[in-house]
Fold each of these.
Amino acid sequence: MNPPQEQATLAGTSGTGAATTLKIFVGGRWVDSSAKTTAEVRNPATNGLLARVPMGGAEDVDRAVQAALKAYPAWRATPPVNRVRPMFKFRELLEKNFEEIARICTLEHGKTIEESRSSVRRAVDNVEVACGIPSLMQGASLEDVATGIDSQYFRQPMGVFAAITPFNFPAMVPMWFLPHAIACGNTFVLKPSERVPLSQMRMFELLHEAGFPDGVVNMVHGGKEAVDGILDHPGIQGVSFVGSSPVARYIYKRGAENGKRVQALGGAKNFVLVMPDADMARAATVSTESCFGCAGERCLANSVVLAVGEAYDAIRARLVDEARKIVVGDGVEGGVTMGPVISAAHREKVLDYIEKGIAEGATLALDGRAFKHPKHPDGYYLGPTIFTDVKPDMVIAREEIFGPVLCVMKADTFDAAVEIVKRHDLGNASSIFTSSGKYAREYRWRVEPSMLGVNIGVAAPMAFFPFGGAKGSFFGDLKAHGRDSIEFYTDKKVTITRWF
Ligand code: NAD
């Protein structure tokens, strides 16, 4: 039986809706892709077909880059105060269409409407930061570097930048890059995840309505072929990437080989350390939200609770109690606190991890495998799952599961816990729950994950701070948003001047 088709009710979007193939946005126009094949975009909550996305390649990328190159000289010559006028307008339009974007995000991704709203809010935050570019991209100067000689540096845009983004935050992650890049005077090509292109379709309509000149922002669709088209294109100066670590490593290497700037944010395995002196009730509630929010498909999900000494017995049962309160369902429904995972294939992958955990001897303290939605039997649902007695060398403790599975582990001492965290390669984020400032400081000092929560479950840096992990979780040096993005999207020109 064919799965049902759904109207995504994307009022005003360019050709979205079940039967349509999405267009690409090039030079200020929605045009057909030159792709030979398409992929389906499905609603994970129902398995209904939302749209078809063209799987474009180098040809589409080249069209977008040519448009961006053409737009660049005039955009670069536009004073920063004028460049941010359409950015302010874009912000207004995002506010006006906030609910619609959040709804599209939930339809294509599956997260709850509340989670979508939070992510759209974070997207708006980034646009707001970029509105401050006349202050942010200033250089510096020093009079009399030698007698009668002055020196100064300006920040200058570099040309065309591109971003390649993942499925888990369809509305937000592209906005970690696009607003900063274009506010700095560059032009831009976005390739959103082929699994969730619809939020960006709507947001690009708003970018167009905001009045950015044709060619300043462009969007192509596709997977690896489009990505390779970006990495190999000589007209692109730099690439921002967010996704899994193996792909991040590949992007970093191939982009750098082709002489580009690259920032590549990869996968995560985030540990939350719970000390015996922590507020256990709070630690349990916050860790549960952190692990199961967005069905565990969050690079900041604390997917391993590492309890020290007697904290293990104090928190284990509480975590199970908290997870039992989670209401699984279609994210658009009120009261639902956890939606489905992104695809049927990903559901199978998570189930496979659960089987591995059982086979390795972890205790299945909460089993979410059997969950079925009464109205949507074909949705990609899983209930929350918790393993206790997890050991650091088990597959479920080592690999990123990216689903609603929490691993609970014990360490005898603080030092032993720190060693476990340090041994792990995917050092994106971590949290510690404690009432001791000494342990909190010591933890921050010793472990590598570079986004750290102290009595906070999701250590998400705001738009004006740098976002990105460490070790195998990050490839590059300049992180996403915050001041790092101004560094990434500009070059510094130094002048040394003497007048006779
Ligand atoms: P993914 O790596 O499969 O895809 C990311 C992007 O790369 C997509 O646009 C996709 O089209 C493209 N891509 C996929 N396979 C490719 C290949 N072989 N060659 C070239 N390009 C390819 O990631 P995903 O499944 O979309 O997203 C989930 C991953 O993203 C998780 O690992 C998660 O931890 C990570 N993530 C990290 C952060 C962070 O800040 N570090 C934030 C969000 C998500």
Note: Residues 164-168, 191, 193-194, 223-224, 227, 242-244, 247, 250, 265-268, 299, 400, 402, 428, 469, 473 surround nicotinamide-adenine-dinucleotide (CB under 6 Å).
Amino acid sequence: MKFFIDTANLDMIKEIDSWGILDGVTTNPSLVAKEGTDTPTRVAEIAKILGDRPVSAECMSMDAEGMIAEGRKLHAIAPNVNVKLPMCVESLKATRVLSSEGIDVNMTLIFSPLQALMAAKAGAAYVSPFVGRLDDIGTRGSDMLAETVGILYTYGFDTEVIAASIRHPTHVLDAADAGCDIATIPYNILKMMVSHPKTDEGIAKFKADYEKVNGPQ
Ligand code: G3P
């Protein structure tokens, strides 16, 4: 499973990139606004850090014509920039055109397998089902993930499923169990995933036993 980080913060991206496990970055208008900058500026900086790894940049236009124009501009920033569109009829129309021009679309704000299926039929390179926001309203986001992956696999779509809106490490586990291609994970969750109290306990014990024989390190 590929790990993307869900942030527009350059320091967080650079730190996780140094771990050697980063496959891409997703941004959205809220994440970019948090950094006090604008999408084209920040996405250009992120694209440079990532080399050929994908970075998602979200359009703000809400009609197909505007999405196509904005998507072309965003993709022109760097070849690894893909275009994020919120699931709706206008985005389906825009996805058909952008994908035919070789511009990858990440269809976002997906909350049902049928939305994902329609986005895949329109040619989306990625779909982003929001598992956390479904959990937030008491529905099982992980069930939607599994159903989405199953349906796209059944019909042979190349569209990659990005588990998004990750609230805790268990969502990453659910994404892996469901066979998602990608999980886009917040910085703090990545930090939580790497550690375990039994690992810390084991490291301390190994150190203590070593030092009994070899003296303090
Ligand atoms: O960036 C897309 C998605 O991961 C955001 O999810 O619910 O944490 O705002 P959320």
Note: Residues 6, 26, 28, 130, 132-133, 164-165, 184 surround SN-glycerol-3-phosphate (CB under 6 Å).
